[in-house]
Model the fold of this input.
Amino acid sequence: MRLPQITFGKVLAGTAVLLIATSGAAYAANTVGSSDIIDGSIKSVDVKDEALGSVDFLNNNLKSVDIKDGDLLSVDIADGTLTSADILDGTVTGADIADGSVGTDDVTNESLTSSDLATDSVNATEVADNSIDAGEIVDFGLTNEDIGVLYAQINADGTVANSSGGVTSSRLGAGTYAVDFGRNISFCGYFATQGEAGVGGAGGAVTGVTDRSGNPNAVFATTRANGGGLVDTAFQILVVC
Done:
């Protein structure tokens, strides 16, 4: 018996019949829609990487649990879209803020305290004129140099017994001395009195002090007995600038 000839068309037709018989339905290209898919049945393995775009997501549909920690970068966030409500309290550190980006408008008035300022970070240019009074200064916290007061205690032989610092002295002759304060004091006021640097009685003497000729850093001082004669004796000088 002669067998019928097998053609390509017969094979294709047979295949179609087999698909219909086994699946119960035939699908043409691009005929599967969302109604053909069971809700929640598609998983991440069913979606090609980077195949979804922003148009595939409903606005406000994604939540923090849908985003892997550390996946978002600054380029993923539109400029000016974050507000204080989007940032957890205490999570922003100095490394998150660009140098020089915080201005006075970004700081609440009177919200900074001394603990927010580095030691010695405030200079004269940061302080308004006449803005500091006694309430801002610790009692006895200023030195003589802070208020423009210098002093020197001079022995009878012209040597320095004690001083505000940087003072040198010399005896020029009987009862005459030159005391150099190491800085220009030509526009300051001088006050001198007889007296030892240490504990003991003050014998008393007539003292005089004036600018030192040719040296704006020094004064010329004399000590005299009650009779007017020059006499070597210890004395003390106060300079107020």
Remarks:
- The helical segments are 8-23.
- Residues 155-240 form one domain.
